[in-house]
Recover the amino acids of this structure.
């Protein structure tokens, strides 16, 4: 069980670092500002349509969803080039994302309905994260739940007594989560 938890923590930390270094991919509902240096009349704001495409004068309709702003710049420049005698310089800026970017990713493992990683966009407590994972299973050790957190290169364990929080007796364990936190819900023992 310890090996499984350790492996899950290593995967969680690796995914968090990869997500931070990731490149933004455009999606339906994103608002973009597009500038064409050679023609100020082509400057406009467009919204990526539900089908993932945008429409641009002289370029027509083209797929934007799934592309980075830089790759969309190249695609637009390629489409517009035939209308200009000099090299076309296109700039695409993400003005407003359709979905708020997660400010943190938390992980829930063990005796819950849906263990896994959860991107969060608002401050979230331990109890809320357990709810995101579908709640505790019937085999969960409600008094031995804990949060594993990395602080200054050291792992810190924060106990969470689900039963005390559930009944409202003690809410002090229901801390706000930070990026990379792992909630571990162990299996209850025979006499728990």
């Amino acid at each position: 069980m310890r090996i499984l938890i350790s492996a899950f923590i290593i995967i969680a930390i690796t995914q968090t670092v990869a997500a931070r270094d990731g490149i933004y991919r455009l999606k339906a509902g994103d608002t973009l500002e597009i500038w064409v240096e050679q023609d100020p009349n082509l400057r406009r704001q467009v919204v990526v349509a539900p089908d993932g495409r945008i429409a641009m004068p002289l370029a027509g309709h083209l797929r934007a969803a799934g592309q980075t702003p830089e790759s969309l710049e190249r695609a637009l420049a390629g489409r517009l080039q035939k209308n200009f005698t000099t090299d076309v310089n296109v700039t695409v800026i993400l003005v407003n994302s359709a979905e708020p970017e997660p400010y943190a990713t938390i992980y829930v493992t063990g005796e819950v309905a849906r263990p896994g990683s959860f991107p969060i966009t608002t401050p979230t407590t331990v109890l809320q994260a357990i709810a995101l994972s579908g709640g505790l299973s019937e085999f969960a050790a409600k008094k031995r739940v804990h949060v594993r957190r990395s602080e200054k290169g050291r792992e810190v364990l924060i106990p969470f007594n689900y039963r005390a929080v559930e009944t409202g007796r003690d809410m002090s364990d229901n801390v706000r989560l930070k990026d990379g936190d792992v909630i571990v819900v162990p299996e209850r023992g025979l006499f728990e």
Notes: The two ends are 18 Å apart (CA to CA). The first strand starts at residue 31 and ends at 36.
